Model the fold of this input.
Amino acid sequence: MQETLTTPSLSGPSQSSISTQDRSSTAGQTSSTGPPPSKPSTIPPPVKSKGLSSRAGVRRMRRIIAEDVEWSLAIVPFLTELCIQHIVKNFQNNPILKQLLPEHQKKVLNNLPPDLPLTVTANLIDDENYWRRCCLQRWPVCHVDKHGGSWKRMFFELHLENLLKHFIPSTTDPAVILNLLPLCRNYVRTIRVDQFLPPVQLLPPPQSGDLSDSGSEGEMEELATDHYQLGDLVAGLSHLEELDLVYGVKDCGMNFEWNLFLFTYGDCHSLAATVKACHTLKIFRLTRSKVDDDKARILIRSLLDHPALEELDLSHNLIGDRGARAAAKLLSHSRLRVLNLANNQVRALGAQSLAHALAHNTNLISLNLRLNCVEDEGGQALTHALQTNKCLTTLHLGGNELSEPTATLLSQVLSINTTLTSINLSCNHIGLDGGKQLLEGMSDNKTLLEFDLRLSDIAQESEYLISQALCANREAARQRALNPTHFMSPITAKGPENPGG
Amino acid sequence: MNPRGSLEVLEEKEDSAPILGPSIHSDNPQERIQARRLRIAARLEARRREALGEYLDGKKESEEDQSKSYKQKEESRLKLAKLLLCGTELVTNIQVAADIREIHRRVEEEEIKRQRLEKLENEVKTSQDKFDEITVKWEEGKQKRIPQELWEMLNAQQVHCAGLIEDKNKLINELQQELKTKDDQYVKDLKKQSDDICLLLERMEEQVKNVMKSFRQELYHIEKAFETERQELLTSNKKKWERALQTHNARELEYLMNRIKRVEDYEKQLNKQRIRDCEEYNSIKIKLEQDVQILEQQLQQMKATYQLNQEKLEYNFQVLKKRDEESTVIKSQQKRKINRLHDVLINLRSKYNKQVKLFQEENRSLTSDYKRLVTQFKELQKAMRHFAVIDDKQFQEIWLMNEEEAKDLISRAFDVDRIIHMQHLGLPWTAPDFWFLRNVGPISQQQKSATQILEEVLMQAEEEGTEESESESYLDLPKQVSAKTTRKILMLLCDESGFLIEKKLLGLLLPLEKDECYMLRLDAIFSALGIENEDDLYKLVNFFLKYQAHHLPPPQEQTSLISASETVEQLVLQGVKSGSLAEGEPQEQEPPPSPRLIHPNDVLKILEAFVMGLRKPRDFQVPVKLLKVVRDDSKDSEYWKALTTVIPSTKQNLWDALYTALEKYHLVLTQRAELLVENQCLERQNTELLQLLQQYLDSRINSELQVPPTQVFRVPTK
Done:
């Protein structure tokens, strides 16, 4: 049945085209140019042939149009299709991809199931679409932008993160992670882990879930509570650039125990060694991990003269003046561009040492000391350092118990400095006079774009005027960015327009 | 906006002006050139304007031209920036509020902590005091021996300890209370924070929504602004376009009209041209047909001739064939002949050899004969020379004799003449003096040697002082050159070309007389120059004079040597011609210019030219000279004729007339005499005749003669 159907169907299009052609030709030309092949060789008179051919054409068309509604040309798929299907089916055992033609490769990749073992797919498939499918299947929310826009990288980074999050030292086999290493070493650039599980307590075996609820308040020996050592993993990842770690446990609920949030010295030493060995690292974040002065010093000592490090984030820890002093030392011994010590316990002394390092630094762009206790002494030292510094653009001193003296110094700095673009002095006690002085400083400044003075006891009037000045500066900056060649005239041209509008 | 627009319109008009004016696609070349010029000027202007006011224009445009959309954009941007700023502030306000709360909490916490620590310290102190008290009391208690006391003390201690413990417990309770409140606080904070986070989320969402909405709105506004601007632009452009289209249409119409007119013109021209072409074509066709006919005729003729020729050629061919056959026959015959002749040749050769021998013999004998003859000839020559000399001598002698005779005769004639003159006519007689009368011996036509002439010339010059009239020497007569000039020229030559004379000679010449010195000098010079005879000398003199004649009138004689040499050549040729002519007839008359004018410096040049010229004629004069050995006797007849005409014809006429007169006279006289004598004579005759007759008759001859004269001749006897 199929054969009988297929033969006419195969010859169908060509014949139909011929018939239509015939008709068109006979309609268009009175003299018969091309008689149909089945016609006798003698040339009939034109009128007769026309009638004949049209009738024949109609008949043929009738024969060609299939009575079957489901009739279609593609009843038998192409051999290539079959082959591709087969390849897809047996991809796990016999991955054939690179040998195929590009369009076939595409087809294969579109048809591959996303749950193939990574050992097969990791180094073989580069197609983003496939990895996108994998990601979307595993995680409902995917921010591919956070992973450099690459779905494959995202898949491996999230996969690795997932494994690290649920790794329980001395219980989980470390080979689980190390086996993944050769597969993901070329793709992972960022490790973001916001929880490290502590090892399971030996005495009472854990009952529910993977978290131990039985940890009594008794101080366990620290050695036992060391978390996963990142050393081997990081050493294997050749493109690692960002390390974002939080030594803590999420969602512990009522099973809260202090030692769940313990960043032990062992952890600290191993992490320091790891970071030191990783020469590609650019961003290092260790937040909310109870890093105190000593641990901070250990870490920072290992980071001295690091070849690539650009950003160091130790916010939400317990770093005091000594740690701040170590950070100051780091500033002069590295190419650090961003330093974040927000929400620590840095006081005047630490701020003074930081200011000393800052005065002659040419790398640091951003310094964040939010929620510390720098106070006027440290604030004055920092602002004094800004008089000589020509590099820093962002300074956050929010919530530092600063008051009028710092503001007076800062107003002087504002009229001199041309690199600062953003200052945050929110949540301080600057006071009315300090506000006025800052306003004076602002009147001479043309580069500052952001100046946060919320909740700092300033008169509303001066705050408003400062915001106006900032607005003008922003306009000027925008003009500069738009046409960098002759930016002087637009500034003068736009100058009078802005206050009005 | 408005001025800009009007400016643009103006500019556009300006731009369109050249299009209206001369067009590049015009037919007129002048117009095209102008159009191109205008285009170039417009381009240059545009470039200049661009270079000058680009920035200004750009700024203006940004401010004025796009004002509407630009304003809208700016407005929206500012609005959105404000909105964003406000939104972020609103969102971050929560963080700031949390921060400040945290700070306050910390401050409070610190304060509380400090108080607590103080309290704890106080507590520790007091409890320590109490503890110390209790321990002191323990010491005291050890000393007590009385049980009641001890018991009391123990009780008291217990009470104290209980108090202490109570204090501690109280403290613990307090702290625990505090902890609890802190826990509550913590829970509250947690709640608060979660609320904050909720608020934050809410605000963020709201913010996102707001921002989105406002962005959409602004986008809509901007789009609207752009739309309106576009509409405006469209309408204005449309208007412009329509205007342009109208002008274009008008122009198009104009072009069309022009074109139609032109087309008509062309059509007319075409028709004319066509007719003319047709006529031309017809005429040409007729001509060509005629030509064709002629050519066909010619062709026919040619064909006929061709046929004829063919037949002729065939005939010739046949003939030639026949001839060939004949020639083959002849050839065979010739061959046979050749064979025969060969035999003959062999015979002849043998004969020839014999002959050769014979002739050799003969030759030998003949050569000996020849030698003999040569010697004979030489002898003959000698004899001839001898005879010639003798002939000469004889001739001279004869000449002299004849001359003598003639002279005798002449002298007699002169005598007669004199007598006639003196006696008959009674006129005084003067003896005529002719050159030939003085001549003795045969006239020697041979050239006098140059030296001789020199001598003569010099002598003449000497004579000149005494007798001026003797200027016309017979020597100079044929040369037309006065002796004086000749002399002068020769002197000049002598003075100027001393280099030609040998030094030895000069030394020898010094003591001599002036004239002789000149003589010798000139002799030497002539020998050096190759001047041998009179002709050469006169040629030289003539040459000098001619040169002068040619060269003096144009004063630039010395300027160009080439011209000089050319003229010299001419002169030489002329001289040669004249020299050759001078032999036959006297030269053409030319006033001899004064030789004084010859500059001494020119002498050398003249000499050089002369020598150059002289060499040529010498070469072909040699054979002539050889012939001159034969004495030419043209002058002889002249001489002799002259001798005969010593008495001129007038005189002869005179003589004739005299003669006739005398004759007549004589006749009369004779008649008289005759008449006188006649009688005597006749008487005598008679006697004589009678005697004679007697004699004749007596002679015996008469008898011998058959017819005696006596019979025939009858003497008239009386």
